[in-house]
């Protein structure tokens, strides 16, 4: 039962509160909605009415008007960084580091109004930026394996910076060789004997490799100077490479965003053709295994009269091929093997096979391989050349 004395204390207190000034806390619409939803809130503390209001004017108690003043500029900044990807939408991640004052302001308000279990300011900033960037750019958010990561750092005075960190980017390249004598890789330094008789152009032409041409293109067209090439096998310097071209992979974590106006353009130089295409990290796995159609010109030790027997032996090459690489047995497969032509001691073969089989070794090298053409034909065979006709 409430006594008269109690009632008078409550009445007294109410009078005091009413007579005291009202303390108003301004919040921007983001901070208000995040903490209070749609309800109006006020509490009485120490004879002061504290009233929270969602105000479009004034300074937000929590974010100091970060959402209204800085947010649009930040979105524009990230959008413009991503707009440099013209052909490709990288997967991205966006994170925020906030000055401690933002958390303190919000915690102060939450303890006063006993607000629990609501997302905090950092959560809201991150979700808003991610959603807007996804909608504006078409880039998908990927927390696990982003290709570009943005880190927004906001100071107490609302100054901010946006750092972007690129992970590795990938290009799928394909090269074709229409002239014999072009090596895949650059010569090692020891071999590279500069001869003063050549002028620079001639020297470059004589020393051009697939690797040097790739590096020239990446540097001159894409402005990428640091890169790593992963080959998917190789051929002889004197082999031609035709059809779709041999695939290779370029990895770079270069920070220079590239303008890809030459996307899927074909670059040609002196018997080499190269094309590039940007791929995501998921595409990388599948490019290392493929089949190739190989034409081999052999010179046999002696002329063969029984061509039927020879054809049978050649078709017997179909099946698994086993050889050792770094103390491991590797198995590849031959799907088709046939003779195209026989002229005296010269025999031309066509083989449909997995990539990765060392072809000169397969014809009759010193290192063990099973089967080996020289052994199957029971005579020494010399490889005049082999060409890669197509990649499937
Ligand atoms: Zn605010």
TrEMBL record:
Lineage top rank: taxon: Archaea
Gene3D superfamilies linked to this entry: 3.30.70.2510
Keyword annotations: Isomerase, tRNA processing
Residue intervals of the Pus10-like C-terminal domain: 172-390
GO biological process: tRNA pseudouridine synthesis
TM segment ranges: none
Cytoplasm found in the keyword field: no
InterPro entries: Pus10-like, Pus10-like_C
UniProt-recorded name of the protein: tRNA pseudouridine(55) synthase
Protein source organism: Candidatus Nitrosocosmicus franklandianus
């Amino acid at each position: 039962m409430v006594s008269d004395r109690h009632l008078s204390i409550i009445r007294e207190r109410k009078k005091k509160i009413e007579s005291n000034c009202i303390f108003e806390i301004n919040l921007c619409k983001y901070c208000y909605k995040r903490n209070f939803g749609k309800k109006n809130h006020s509490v009485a503390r120490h004879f002061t009415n504290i009233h929270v209001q969602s105000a479009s004017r004034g300074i937000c108690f929590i974010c100091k008007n970060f959402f209204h003043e800085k947010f649009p500029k930040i979105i524009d900044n990230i959008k413009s960084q991503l707009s440099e990807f013209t052909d490709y939408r990288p997967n991205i991640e966006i994170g925020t580091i906030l000055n401690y004052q933002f958390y303190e302001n919000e915690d102060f308000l939450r303890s006063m109004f006993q607000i629990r279990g609501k997302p905090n300011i950092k959560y809201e900033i991150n979700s808003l930026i991610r959603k807007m960037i996804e909608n504006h750019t078409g880039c998908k958010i990927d927390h696990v394996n982003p290709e570009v990561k943005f880190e927004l750092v906001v100071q107490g005075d609302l100054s901010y910076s946006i750092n972007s960190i690129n992970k590795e980017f990938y290009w799928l390249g394909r090269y074709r060789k229409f002239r014999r004598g072009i090596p895949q890789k650059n010569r090692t330094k020891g071999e590279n004997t500069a001869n003063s008789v050549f002028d620079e152009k001639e020297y470059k032409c004589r020393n051009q490799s697939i690797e040097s041409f790739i590096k020239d293109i990446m540097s001159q067209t894409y402005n990428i100077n640091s890169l790593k090439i992963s080959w998917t096998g190789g051929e002889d310097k004197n082999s031609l490479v035709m059809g779709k071209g041999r695939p290779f992979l370029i990895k770079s974590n270069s920070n220079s965003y590239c303008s890809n106006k030459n996307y899927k353009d074909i670059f040609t130089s002196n018997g080499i053709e190269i094309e590039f295409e940007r791929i995501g990290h998921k595409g990388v796995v599948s490019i290392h295994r493929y089949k190739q159609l190989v034409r081999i010109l052999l010179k046999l030790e002696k002329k063969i009269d029984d061509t039927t027997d020879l054809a049978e032996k050649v078709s017997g090459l179909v099946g698994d091929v086993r050889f050792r690489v770094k103390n491991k047995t590797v198995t590849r497969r031959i799907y088709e093997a046939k003779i195209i032509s026989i002229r005296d001691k010269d025999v031309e073969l066509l083989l449909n096979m997995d990539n990765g089989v060392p072809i000169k070794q397969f014809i009759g090298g010193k290192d063990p391989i099973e089967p080996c053409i020289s052994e199957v034909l029971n005579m020494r065979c010399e490889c005049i050349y082999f060409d890669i006709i197509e990649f499937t």
